[in-house]
């Protein structure tokens, strides 16, 4: 295991290795994986985030209605104002333990900063993606 792995969260290093391995997948395999992840995300948002369920129900859209990329146009737009007004009770997924969430905010270049929430797993994925980007730039990690 490279020395960097000793200082990298365990999951981030595992995700990084999975990113590298997936580069060799056939395009149709990658496309299928992305579609499956999108479908899981859509179901998760509908089932666990009250704001999305309310907006989608009002528009008559259910997760199973999204069967192709073209169907995404049926999903109602969520604005920054929607997020501000619904935060935190209607915006944060109900199935996340609050102790595993990390808060940050945008810089507010459009006038008002927007509070953002991430779970630790998301942070690990982002770190793994950063490591992968560095490798693609020719910077060897490890």
Overall description:
This protein has 142 residues and is mainly alpha-helical. The protein has a single domain, classed as 3-Layer(aba) Sandwich (Rossmann fold). It has six helices and two strands, in the order H-H-H-H-H-E-E-H. The chain has a two-stranded antiparallel sheet with strand order 1-2. The chain is globular and about 50 Å long. 8% of the residues are buried.
What's the SSE blueprint?
Layout: H1 3-6, H2 10-22, H3 27-48, H4 50-58, H5 80-86, E1 101-105, E2 115-119, H6 120-136
Antiparallel strand pairs: 1-2
Helix pairs in contact: 2-6, 3-4
Main sheet properties? 2 strands, antiparallel
The CATH architecture comes to: 3-Layer(aba) Sandwich
Domain unit count:
1
CATH class bucket: Alpha Beta
Q: Kindly identify the CATH topology.
A: Rossmann fold
Quickly count the helices. Answer: 6
The N- and C-terminal alpha carbons lie at a distance of: 8 Å
Low-confidence regions: none
Shape: globular
Number of strands: 2
* Average pLDDT for all residues: 90
Structural class: mainly alpha
Which band does the percent of strand residues land in? 5-15%
Q: Based on the structure, what is the oligomeric state of the protein chains?
A: single chain
């Amino acid at each position: 295991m490279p020395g960097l792995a000793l200082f990298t969260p365990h999951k981030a290093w595992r995700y990084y290795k999975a990113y590298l391995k997936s580069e060799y997948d056939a395009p149709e395999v990658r496309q299928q994986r992305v579609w499956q992840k999108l479908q899981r995300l859509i179901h998760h948002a509908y089932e666990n985030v009250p704001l999305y369920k309310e907006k989608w129900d009002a528009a008559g859209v259910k997760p199973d209605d999204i069967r192709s990329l073209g169907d995404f146009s049926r999903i109602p737009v969520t604005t920054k104002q929607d997020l501000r007004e619904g935060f935190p009770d209607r915006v944060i997924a109900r199935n996340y333990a609050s102790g595993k969430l990390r808060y940050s905010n945008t810089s507010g270049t459009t006038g008002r900063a927007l509070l953002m929430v991430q779970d630790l797993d998301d942070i690990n994925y982002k770190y793994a993606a950063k490591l992968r980007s560095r490798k693609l730039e020719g910077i060897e990690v490890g």
